[in-house]
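note to self: dont lose this again. the chain is below, predicted strucutre after it. 521 aa total, dont forget to put it in the shared folder this time
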Amino acid sequence: MFVSDFRKEFYEVVQSQRVLLFVASDVDALCACKILQALFQCDHVQYTLVPVSGWQELETAFLEHKEQIKLLIKQDDDLEVPAYDDIFRDEEEDEEHSGSESDNGSEPSEKRTRLEEEIVAQTMKRRQRREWEARRRDILFDYEQYEYHGTSSAMVMFDLAWMMSKDLNDMLWWAIVGLTDQWVQDKITQMKYVTDVGVLQRHVSRHNHRNEDEENALSVDCTRISFEYDLRLALYQHWSLHDSLCNTCYTAARFKLWSVHGQKRLQEFLADVGLPLKQVKQKFQSMDISLKENLREMIEESANKFGMKDMRVQTFSIHFGFKHKFLASDVVFATMSLMESPEKDGSGTDNFIQALDSLSRSNLDKLYHGLELAKKQLRATQQTIASCLCTNLVISQGPFLYCSLMEGTPDIVLFSKPASLSLLSRHLLKSFVFSTKNRRCKLLPLVMAAPLSVEQGTVTVVGIPPETDSSDRKNFFGRAFEKAAEGTNSRTLHNHFDLSVIELKAEDRSKFLDALVSLLS
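---
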């Protein structure tokens, strides 16, 4: 069902019902859920929240609650969308109509002229129809062939809250985190990110202006959101600057930190910035204030010399009172790590609840726990990338690059979940592009496999599109995986909402890859 008026056709319809809310296991979905929960609480709407990690869980949850579900379908006849026959009238009707008109003509020359005009008009109609159908085929092919992401779900929900004049600071922050999740995971283009940041920046200015006009002074534990032009370094304000430089994909790939030469370049960079190693290797919060004052400008200036032109990015930060400050990317990494935590004492639902709770300012202890898990995840990611590149595990299969993580690889359990493996794959591809001298390989996509279950003999397979400056972030692997599995009768499970992530029987891996090579060649 396509909804043109989100408020009337969605919210006002469900407002009087008990709502069943299915939420996917990604950060943007969690943020959209938090905004919707706040709206439901505001309007006293009863709801049931069900986390779903894939199509199977969604189907199971639907069947459990199907007796209570009413499908709400609203048909608008006044949308002014013309019917097919209104656009392209039947040719026989046109001919009959033109024939009856031509009989009324008195002169043969007038008949001929009118007939010629009608023939030209019908020819033009047929041509327009063929062009329209060809364009339609192209659009459908593009839609079905590729997987790509639109506007953040959290931003859509915030827009709904804003239309109803119920937008709060917390909701705005969740919308910011949802957008940042898309950017961190390379789901949208840089242009789309900058455009949406501009939209949210206007909302931030409006909220800050509204708070300034309030008569009462702001409390010590107030929430303040700021637009920032900050460093592209993961978790650096909660880590040491050295650890952040070594475990951020952007800097690790460009310095080539898996090599001795890369480590030397990092030392040269720090010397150029003018930062002593003693200061850089201690916690950021403990660094000398005199060094931190102009740190961003100093790092950006040196980064330009070392070929890193995008060292600073547009982002947002939030202050909870005077003590706690987080960048939007910090919250994304923390929430993602909580959701895909490999800790044995937590189930998928427990992890979901922990991640959802960490987005509330009343649960900062959970957010800080998520930051610690995120540090482990980022460190393990860079160590695995270094291992793959130094042992030449990334090989060319012709139309794509292929890398397989073996059972027994250190920290392999951290990459058994789809989002973690996708993040590793994207970072590995970026690093490989900087490490290889083969121009053709730099333009290839990557297929990566990691063990999922030793008992069941399954692996998780992820497809990542090519890493190019002009990349439109469209992923074609979902459809390619389906066709390769069908052609070889490979035992696969296409359960994830992200179609470029599948589960595959390890025994079928060889024939599956052969089919994929022939399909993409």
